[in-house]
Every structure is written in C-alpha cells, then in structure tokens.
Here is the input.
Amino acid sequence: MVVAARLYVRISVGGFKGINADGQVDSHQQQSLLQSAARPINPASSRTRSHRLLGGGAFTAFQTSLKLRDRVWSDSAPATADVRRGWFWTVEHILLVMRVVVTGAAGFLGSHLTDRLLSEGHQVVGADNFSTGAPENLAHLANEPRFQFLEQDVCRPFDPGHVDYVFNFASPASPPEYLRLAIETLRVGSAGVENSLEIALRYRAGYLHASTSECYGEPLEHPQTEGYWGNVNPVGPRSVYDEAKRYAEALVMAYHRSRGVSTRMVRIFNTYGPRLQPNDGRVISNFMMQALKGEPLTIYGDGSQTRSFCYVDDLIDGILLMSRSNEHLPVNLGNPDEFTVLECAQAVLDVTGSQSVLRFLALPEDDPTRRCPDITKARTLLGWEPRTTLREGLMRSLDFFKSRVSLRSAALEIH
Ligand SMILES: NC(=O)c1ccc[n+]([C@@H]2O[C@H](COP(=O)([O-])OP(=O)(O)OC[C@H]3O[C@@H](n4cnc5c(N)ncnc54)[C@H](O)[C@@H]3O)[C@@H](O)[C@H]2O)c1
Here is the structure.
C-alpha cells in the first residue's frame, strides 16, 4: 500500500514537462537535448534515485525481489521458472520504478513508448543514431531528469549501465528508408539486435523486441496468425528488412533458449499517429500530407490491396502488456479492421476536408496485396485489442500533419 501510494504521488506530481511532441523544436530545446546526450550515465546515481522515489523500505523490497528473480533466472525447470519469473516481473512492473533502455527512442514508436514509460514513473535511457528518427521527437524531454539520451549506433556494442528492461525498437521501418539504408537495415537487424540482447543478458534484464508483420511476406494465409511461417522472397528488394527481421526473431529465441534471457517479441502491423515521419512513404503519412497540401493522393496499383491501421496509443498499450507477460513466442499487435487502400484514401479526404484527386501508379515489387492480423492470441493472452477507429485516429493525427505542412511551407518561403 505504502509503495503504491508513493508511486502514485510520484506519477501525479512528476508528469511531463512541456510536452510539445507535435510542435517545432526550438534551438534551445535541441541544444538541451544534445547536452543531455553528453550527460554521463551513472547507474549508481540511478539506483540512488530509485531509492529516493521508492523510499528506503520499498527499495529494500525491490532489491530482494531482484535477488529472488536472479535465483529464479537460474532455475533449471523452465516451466516453473517462467511462472515464477512472470510473477516477479508483474510485481516489479506494478509497484516498482525501473531503469529501462529504449533503442530507436528518437523514432515514431520509440518516442511514444519512451513517453509512456516516463509517465509510469520509470527512468528511460534512449539510444538512437538519428538515421531515420528525429531530435524533435524527444525535444519535449530536454529537461526531464528521468530521461537520458545516448547518441549511439546500436550496431556497435554499448553499455547503458544497469537496466531492468530492454525495449529494442531500432531499425528503419518504412520501405523508402530501408531501401535507402539496405546494408544498415541488415546490420541493425543482426548486430544491433545481438548487442541489445547482450545488455539484457549482462544485467539479467527483461527484453522486448519490435518485430513486424513483414515477417509474413506476401501471405498465403489470411488473416495471419502467429503460427503462419510466412512467404518471403529472400532476394527481393524488401528482403533487407523482411529477412533481417526474421533473423532477429531467430536470434531472440536463441538468446532465450540458450542463454536464458527473458525475451518477448511483438509482430507489429501498420501503425500510425503523430510523429510518423511525413515523408517516409507509409500510406497514412503519404495521404495526409498530400491531402493537406491539395496534391493528388498516390495510389499504387488499383487500390484494392488491403491494409490494417493501428493507432499508436493502442499499440503502446499492447507493447506494455506484452512486456509484462510470460509469452516468449511472437504475438501479433495490430488492428484487425481491414481497409482497402482506396477506402483509406477516402477516410483521409473526409477527415482533412481536402478536394485532392487520386493518382494511380504501378504497384512496387513485392508489395503485399493483403495484410491483416489475427489478434486472437493478444486478446486471449493480454486481454488487448485496439479501441481507436481509423477516423478517430486520423482526427487525432490531423494537427501533427498540419504542423508539418506549415513547417514545409515556411521553409519553402525562406528559400
Ligand atoms: N511503425 C510501424 O508501423 C511498424 C510496423 C512494424 C514494425 N515496426 C518496428 O518498430 C520499430 C520502430 O519503428 P518506427 O515506425 O518507430 O520507425 P522509425 O524509423 O520512426 O524509428 C526507428 C528508430 O531507430 C533508429 N535507428 C535505426 N538504426 C539505428 C541504429 N543502427 N542505431 C541506433 N538507432 C537506430 C532510427 O534513427 C529511428 O529513430 C522498428 O524496429 C520497426 O521495424 C514498426
């Protein structure tokens, strides 16, 4: 009770400072962010801070639970160990402040996850090399003492200090970006994932990996369940992403089976919301930017291919629930409401009030024709399902995309 009360007070008093996720980054904020990147990370002081946040008695309980967890870790009976380890994880997550590392923290999903973890009272070390992410996604955290930033290529081994959990989100994610960064995408899906697993191994931390629906390739089963092994072209242009992600899943399972790391992975389906890079070629960002600028909406093929779109807040709910679960095999997270690309274009036109016309272009190579998750496993295991409809999510994203259109117009006027 006392611990819960302390944590509650901490969360309600702490909150966020100057959240400005959708606005511009001013030079002062950017400077502060870069200074926070240079701030040394001191695990001892983070422990001290945990001690202060929790109060002495609670901190001792925290240490005891870690010791117990360590004993569970080396338990040779995996089934029993899993149940007990899961119980300890749940207690730690509910009652205790953790120090966690989020790789890819400057990206779309990584920055939303970072915000949510901070709002739950945790300390976050964000690691990113800004290859596809942006400093403005973290600018609102420049003065947040529980956030530390490491400008770091995760393909090189690194040590964030003691952490209780590793969330691995670093990887280019949109087709134009992973085609531009082909070798880097393969590296971050292999060396990058391995380095993040080594951190979890070293500190006996929990681990969650962001995998993708692209592991299913051009699916021959519909909708896709986790039991479907996929249909991926191993030498097509998109293979740099699809195969890197499939290799990463194998690596995560190997660290779980051979090294005892407590891993989890989610196969994420198309997700959208504020901070989705406006120019990264994903359906929603393309359509929103084109509609708001009054340009034609580009449809590849005849627009009858389907996609499912999950609003970012729903996805982060699922990721946090998954991080507290005992499931080590992949779990699909996405919105099972299936829309054709044409229906999506119409929804964007309605929400933006745009008069843009549609322009049809040839379908790119290996573009999947159907994509829809079966989320029975997430529903059963986590009690999770998305709650935001496509129109609601588009409405909530509108201000962000409007701000990006204004930024571009201002930049064009200056030039
Ligand atoms: N957004 C989606 O719809 C979606 C769908 C499926 C899977 N995912 C997965 O979720 C994760 C995050 O995706 P996102 O949409 O936020 O993409 P994003 O491009 O916005 O974010 C990825 C982040 O990783 C960083 N990064 C890339 N390579 C790195 C490296 N070598 N070292 C350090 N940082 C590096 C980038 O700079 C960026 O900030 C990815 O692993 C992606 O595969 C996303």
